[in-house]
């Protein structure tokens, strides 16, 4: 990428909260924008909308004037117009955000080329709908019909783009139907300094080969859509099978109190421990690198969660439900095991299998690290920026 004159505008769904000394943004979003703008051959601007009341998973205050990317903040209900896109070579926005589905004619009229990103397939949206509590069945069915109708608009929007980028294997499979050259990327925030070291991997493998208890971990939201309700049933099944293990659960969400009560009622302490969320870089990553062997993933839906690569980058094998994302990733990385979705007893069987073959478990921990290192944040970002530049230049 040598042309330094290319102008890129990203319409992003990230939360923003104006404050007296600047803007409060999600910390991971800031890191991503800084790296991607550094890799982009020209001006890199971003449009965000007000409306967020809080930023729950990490916040950072920035001074936009001191950043390498431009930041334009709109009102929550402000419509994008052709004028917002004038002067840009390329506009990138997400097909997951319904507010973007009518933007193609405006981008075209402004003389820019359009690249559309996608993370969620219709299957994933429907699973999330039916996994999220609080609605009656008739209301869920009505919402499902609306999702299916909106999917037609989403597909037309994607077909109108000059380029497509897909986060994760399920989205990539869909995007290739509109664009055989659609780019696959695996979003994460792992940088070289965060990966497990050789010393840590050797210590983990030596410990596993000594027949010490396997150390399971779950990190993420404690919500039904993430399958967190299956964590304790898996733990109970492991105890019943006589597997020596520990399970550390890090996260917050509506199921937290229920999980805490289940641990106490089931007499699962001290091998099952519930923790508050930790800072990703300074606390969680060091803990995972030194105190865990397996990421236990109960995700039933096929979203491209960055937690897969981030746990793998800490040297953890993954044992998870065979949703379309993890099934494909497991096949590509040989970094873990899959189990039928929604069956915690069989997920426990997979853990027991891993615990019974320590040589294979150690090998898959090493495979996990190697795969994550090949797909770290900089490598994936560079790949995305190179693809965008190619689309911009026609």
Summarize the structure.
This is Glycosyltransferase. By secondary structure, the protein is an alpha/beta fold.
Structure write-up:
Residues 216-367 form the Glycosyl transferase family domain. Its EC number is 2.4.-.-. It comes from Aliisedimentitalea scapharcae. It is an enzyme of class 2 (transferase). The chain has 394 residues and is of the alpha/beta class. The protein has two domains: 6-188 and 377-392, Glycogen Phosphorylase B (Rossmann fold), CATH 3.40.50.2000; 192-374, Rossmann fold (3-Layer(aba) Sandwich). The chain is 44% helix and 20% strand. It contains 15 helices and 16 strands. It has helices at residues 27-39, 82-85, 104-109, 122-131, 137-159, 169-178, 198-209, 231-240, 256-265, 280-291, 307-313, 324-333, 344-356, 358-374, 377-392, and strands at residues 6-11, 16-19, 22-26, 42-49, 59-62, 70-74, 90-94, 113-118, 163-167, 183-185, 214-219, 245-250, 272-275, 294-297, 317-321, 336-339. Strands 6-4-1-7-8-9-10 form a seven-stranded parallel β-sheet, sandwiched between helices. Strands 13-12-11-14-15-16 form a six-stranded parallel β-sheet, sandwiched between helices. β14 (294-297), α11 and β15 form a beta-alpha-beta unit. The longest helix is centred in the middle third of the chain and has 23 residues, at 137-159. It is globular.
Helix content: 40-55%
Describe the global form.
globular
What distance lies between the first and last C-alpha atoms, to the nearest angstrom? 13 Å
Q: Uncertain regions: pLDDT < 50 for 5+ in a row? A: none
- Beta-strand residue percentage: 15-25%
């Amino acid at each position: 990428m040598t042309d330094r004159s290319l102008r890129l505008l990203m319409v992003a769904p990230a939360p923003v909260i104006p404050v007296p000394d600047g803007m409060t943004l999600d910390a991971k979003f800031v890191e991503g924008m800084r790296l991607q703008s550094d890799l982009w051959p020209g001006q890199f601007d971003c449009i965000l909308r007000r409306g967020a009341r809080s930023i729950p998973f990490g916040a950072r205050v920035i001074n936009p004037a001191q950043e390498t990317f431009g930041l334009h903040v709109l009102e929550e209900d402000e419509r994008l117009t052709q004028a917002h896109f004038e002067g840009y070579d390329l506009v990138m926005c997400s097909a997951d955000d319904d507010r973007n589905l009518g933007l193609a004619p405006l981008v075209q009229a402004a003389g820019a080329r359009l690249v559309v990103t996608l993370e969620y397939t219709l299957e994933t949206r429907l699973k999330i709908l039916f996994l999220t509590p609080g609605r009656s069945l008739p209301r869920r069915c009505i919402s499902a019909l609306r999702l299916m109708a909106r999917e037609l608009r989403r597909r037309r929007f994607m077909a109108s783009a000059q380029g497509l980028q897909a986060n994760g294997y399920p989205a990539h499979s869909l995007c290739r139907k509109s664009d055989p050259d659609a780019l696959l990327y695996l979003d994460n925030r792992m940088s070289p300094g965060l990966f497990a070291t050789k010393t840590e991997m050797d210590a983990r493998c030596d410990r596993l080969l000594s027949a010490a208890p396997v150390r399971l971990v779950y990190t993420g939201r404690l919500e039904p859509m993430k399958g967190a309700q299956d964590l304790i049933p898996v733990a109970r099944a492991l105890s019943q099978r006589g597997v020596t293990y520990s399970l550390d659960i890090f996260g917050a969400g509506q199921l937290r109190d229920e999980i805490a009560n289940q641990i106490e009622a089931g007499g699962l302490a001290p091998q099952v421990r519930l923790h508050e969320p930790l800072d990703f870089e300074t606390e969680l990553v060091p803990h995972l690198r030194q105190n865990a062997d397996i990421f236990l993933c109960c995700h039933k839906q096929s979203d491209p969660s960055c937690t897969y690569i981030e746990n793998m980058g800490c040297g953890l094998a993954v044992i998870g439900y065979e949703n379309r994302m993890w099934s494909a990733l497991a096949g590509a990385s040989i970094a873990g095991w899959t189990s039928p979705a929604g069956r915690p007893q069989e997920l426990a069987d997979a853990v027991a299998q891993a615990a019974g073959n320590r040589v294979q478990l150690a090998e898959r921990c090493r495979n996990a690290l190697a795969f994550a290192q090949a797909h770290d944040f900089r490598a994936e970002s560079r790949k995305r920026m190179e693809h965008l530049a190619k689309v911009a230049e026609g």
